[in-house]
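Researcher: Structure for this, please.
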Amino acid sequence: MQSALLTLVAALAAALPAQPALAALVENLTTSVTAMALGNAVTADPPGIDSIHFNPAGLARLTGDSKIYSAFGASIRTGAAFHKPEGFDVGGWTDDPVAGQRTGPVRQAMYVPGYGMPGWRLPGVIIPGLGMAFNKPGSAFTFATNSYMSQAISIDRTTDPNDPARFDGRQIQLQRLVYAAPSIGWKYSDTLRFGLSVPIAHSAFVVDTHMRFPNELLGVFGKLQQGWCPESGGNIIDTFGFGLCGGGKEGMVTPFKHAASMRLQMTAPFDPTLNLGVLWEPRPWFALGAVYQGGSKTRYTGKYQFDTQPMLRNFVKGLNSSLFGPVAGAVLGLPSSIPETQKGNLSATIPFPAHLQVGVKLRPIRYVQLNVDASIAKWSDWNALTFEFDQSVKLLEVARLYGIADSTKLKIPRGYKSLVNYGFGLQLFPTEKLALRLGYEPRKSSIPGDKVDLIAPLPDTKLYSVGLNYKFSPHSDISLTASYMAGKFDTPANTDCNMNCNKFLNVIYNPYAGLDVAGDIKVRYAGLSFTHRF
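Model: Predicted structure, token format:
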């Protein structure tokens, strides 16, 4: 056993000096007050009851019974600016009203299990947590449970109805709330411990966005209408043709007009996973830990609603009011009409990525401790997200022109990657009762530079943290943490086909086709936890 662990130590030591691409998205941002203070580098020094998530083997270090009360507040601020480069042209259209604008205010919300999305919008969110651990004197086993947020991002841009970011996410809510986590830690020996936990989560996924479809094909078609149709919208010759003008003035197609709105709201109320951990502490000054957090193919169900604006509704109506328009529509697979609102039930399988993390703890002198962790999450599972509807969506039938064959499904490309991430934590112990904490986590995004968008504006970021722990007595202590994470992205026109590619058939989904987009994200976090042993 020890020879295998020594091999693992050697492998970790060899890996840490190397600098492969680092990666992280939304994992570990709102999970533990102590871990945040240490750059989430706690696998080899698991933080009490929070070990359930970071390394359940750490539970076997607890003696007696204990509780932890925690609360954190977090705010996300993200913005973007749009610039029209020289030579901008989308099928003959050279002026995009979004060009020169900047996105507006951002607020947060919270999906309340059993209720849904409340109407209020806040400058930040506050989330409480409660954990318990039980250990009988002399027992090698510790039992525990905890509630915590293992994954979260919340962006609400609905304050400004004309925010240019509304075309790529007016509201985005992704959260995974662990409401129970039955766990066990086993003290195999004085130096070796194992642990297992089963986090049971409620997951929520909400996307609400306005939609527009600037691309070459739509632009050329709009210019054809301008040349063929009189301003009044009527053309007697067209009536005996394909009905390009039959939709009237409102049915004139432009690539930059608000075309539709989409709201998807889904949950997975019961989604268990498995955490396995090992902790080896051969010396008081040295420890090695590893945890595997199992993923899941989370099955979401919920509701959808598509609201289609007059432009597409009237165009299709005019097409089907002409002599040859219905024939052309049948050949192209276009709908005979588009309702103003279409809603129903949907489902989707959205993976919760598996996560592997290993770490080392070094305490060369009593007053100083250094933690270093390396981790990888399987975000490559998010290559594309497919949403399945209970009927053919008439708006998506229009997209058959662009090669979208199945209008009962919406496939949104993502193209995320699985890479390695590091975290660093430093603790100083000036007195027996006080510990000062510093954390640093360079989080190079699992979203490649050519895949970032305003739905997931998560570029490379750096996380800085400070915190402390103060022991009031052998039975109680308090931890405080403050963290700041920031990053920027700069995406030239036609370099990101999740946002601004201008190609002939790029309808899903590039709402800022041909524009330069530059943006940033800032996350502020403050947390408090109180532990009582009895």
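Researcher: Any notable elements?
Model: The first helix runs from residue 2 to 15. Confidence is low (pLDDT under 50) at residues 1-24.
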